Amino acid sequence: MLRLSKKTDYALMAMKHLASDPRRRAASAREIAETYDIPVELMAKVLTRLVRSGLLTSHQGVHGGYELAQPPAATSVAAVLEAIDGPLTMTACTHGDHECDQFSKCNVRDPLRRIRDRIAAILAECSILEIAADPEPSAPPVRVMSSPAMRRVSAL
Amino acid sequence: MLRLSKKTDYALMAMKHLASDPRRRAASAREIAETYDIPVELMAKVLTRLVRSGLLTSHQGVHGGYELAQPPAATSVAAVLEAIDGPLTMTACTHGDHECDQFSKCNVRDPLRRIRDRIAAILAECSILEIAADPEPSAPPVRVMSSPAMRRVSAL
DNA sequence: TTAAGATACGACCAGTTTGGTCGGATATTC
DNA sequence: GAATATCCGACCAAACTGGTCGTATCTTAA
């Protein structure tokens, strides 16, 4: 499992779309949704969450739409996940609330927290730039730039 | 998000319990369940899944119960996850089936697969031994690495 | 041989989450 | 003022999840 939600998928697709868009104008929810066959209203909902989290800027009106709030290298995949699905918790108790029935007796809390931290690190190190750099279906290959994050990837 | 299910939690707790049990006899579902305040029937269900996946051996009868099928170092956390929740997929299409509506147009499939592989590697590298080596229910305050740190990729 | 302690298995249920839809309000440009 | 946008909240059906129940079967010990 460990599956990420469809909304997160859509969010990442949109972020990549905006990151690799050659023309530097805002893209509307409709445009993105139609490009990837995503229900328009749902795409809109996802995009506004990204705006609220500061990852995108929006402006309304006839030629409005969404733009990245930061350069692609500055936004991590982790940030997108958190924007859509909330804090990256692996268990009910990862966040500090003791609302798990087994809290007092749990014997795997700390080990799991460490695993979670390692996963969080991976997601935090992976930027939208990295996602966008991927040669995708029909998109022309983007020139690979060398940044710390990218070098780490090719090392794997 | 990326939360793992309660059943997986229970499975890991049981595996650790069995791995760190000094006396080398089988533990019953009831014993484990009561130790950690887990509903007995649910614990039983989880344990049988672990048996079916070959991670535990069981035997019935009066002094029956469950035992690790392998030394703790030989079972990975990933194996436990998969035993309970099925293959570790991040998206609908990670496993090869094309059952996602956006399959043909998806622009993040490959990047996500690479991220998934890195996460899978972490889970595969972490063994039950490592989990069991952890000092027990200390219950220290939990500090979540939250937005500011996660939000931006460091030093880019 | 029988009672007790144990796993095995499948059906079931209620609560939550999720993906998706709808209606309407507001802003911006032409 | 019309068209194109974002914004916002309510809503719904389907899927998933945690948990329960009943029953069958195996194994040991008295």
Description:
The structure is a homodimer of 156-residue chains. The first copy, chain A, is 47% helix and 5% strand. In chain A, strands 1-2 form a two-stranded antiparallel ribbon. The two termini of chain A are 23 Å apart. Chain A has helices at 6-19, 29-36, 40-52, 77-85, 109-125, 128-132, 148-155, and strands spanning 56-59, 65-68. Chain A has 156 residues and is mainly alpha-helical. The longest helix of chain A is centred in the last third of the chain and has 17 residues, at 109-125. In chain A, strand 1 and strand 2 form a beta hairpin. Chain A binds a DNA duplex (30 and 30 nucleotides) through residues 5-7, 28-30, 39, 41-42, 44-45, 47-48, 51, 58-66.
How would you summarize this macromolecular structure in one to three sentences?
The structure is a homodimer of 156-residue chains. Chain A is mainly α.
Properties at a glance:
elongated; 156 residues; homodimer
Total of DSSP H or I helical runs spanning 4+ residues of chain A:
7
Ranges of chain A where pLDDT stays below 50 over 5 or more residues in a row are: 138-156
Helix content of chain A: 40-55%
| Largest sheet properties of chain A | 2 strands, antiparallel
Radius of gyration of chain A: 18 Å
Strand fraction of chain A equals 5-15%
Please state the overall shape of chain A, judged from the principal axes of the Cα atoms: elongated
Listing every helix as H and every strand as E from the N terminus to the C terminus, the arrangement of chain A reads: HHHEEHHHH
Q: Alpha-carbon distance between the termini of chain A?
A: 23 Å
Biggest interface, chains and residue tallies: A-B, 74 and 67 residues
Oligomer: homodimer
Q: What's the total number of strands of chain A? A: 2
